[in-house]
Each structure stands twice: as C-alpha cells, then as structure tokens.
Design a protein that fits this description.
This protein is mainly alpha-helical. It has one domain: Cytochrome c-like domain (Cytochrome Bc1 Complex, Chain D, domain 2, Orthogonal Bundle). The protein has 8 helices and no strands. Helix 2 crosses helix 7 and helix 5 packs across helix 7. The chain is globular. The termini are far apart.
C-alpha cells in the first residue's frame, strides 16, 4: 500500500466531518478500502459523485447519504459491507435502505463489478471514503424523518 494512500485513509478516518460509530482502524481491511477507492471514480462517481452537481442534478443519491442510511441500519462493519454488497449484486426495492432516494431515482441498475470488487467498494464507503456535498444540510432536511446517522 502506498504511503500516500495510507496517510490519506488515516487522515480521513481521524478528521471525518460527520459523526459515526468508532471502529478500530485495525478492524478495517485497508487493502480492500484502497481497492474500493480506486474503483469508485470509474464505477460509482459517474452517478453517485457529487463534484459540481447540485442536489437535484445528481443521477443517483450521493454516496455520503447512502452511507448514512446504511450505517443507521447496519452499524457493524461486516453487516454494513454484506448489506451493500448484496443489494448491489441483486438490486431489489424491498432491500433498499434509502426509500426516498428509491422513489426519486428509481431502482439501481445492476453493475458490472465482481462480488469481491463490490465488497471493496462497500468497505471504502464504510470507511468514509465518500465526498460530503456542500449541500449536505439540505439533504439532511429532506431525510430528517429517516433514521440515518449524520
């Protein structure tokens, strides 16, 4: 693992902008987090990436919001990763943990990643390797009745 990526992961973990359950860094499979970080720009950010997009211009919900919703239901790392991976392998409306987003964007299309690649992406999302949008406060207001952890 490159020293730069290790330092980035450690910094993001220590200085995260949103509250979250503390998980020992040693519990994170850093190789998988790093692999997920490499996969996300190519396979996830086209639709879920925030960048210059406003809240109503997104093609899919921001991963920051998806993370918050899944953490509310699955605070344990392995359960979180399993739930996201299972949903991505076979997207079904009844398995979604982001009901408002499902109503707005529709059901996610299946992706072309392998199960191990999807698990790596899920670990990166769990680790907080997602962009927090500048309009996060507005997003929270839309989801105030949800059980997401902000």
């Amino acid at each position: 693992m490159s020293a730069r990526i290790s330092l980035l992961l450690l910094t993001c973990w220590l200085v995260a902008c949103e509250p979250r359950e503390e998980v020992a860094r040693s519990a994170l499979p850093l190789e998988l987090v790093e692999q997920g970080v490499r996969l996300m720009p190519v396979h996830c950010n086209t639709c879920h990436g925030v960048g210059e997009f406003g809240i109503d211009e997104m093609l899919a919900p921001p991963l920051w919001g998806v993370r918050a919703h899944y953490l509310a239901h699955f605070p344990e790392p392995d359960a979180f990763v399993d739930a996201i991976t299972e949903f991505l392998l076979e997207p079904q409306a009844e398995a979604s943990r982001v009901p408002l987003e499902l109503a707005h964007y529709g059901l996610k299309a299946p992706v072309s990643l392998t199960e191990s690649e999807l698990r790596a992406v899920a670990w990166a999302v769990f680790a907080g390797q997602v962009e927090r949008p500048v309009w996060a406060r507005e997003y929270r207001k839309r989801h105030q009745d949800c059980s997401a952890r902000w």
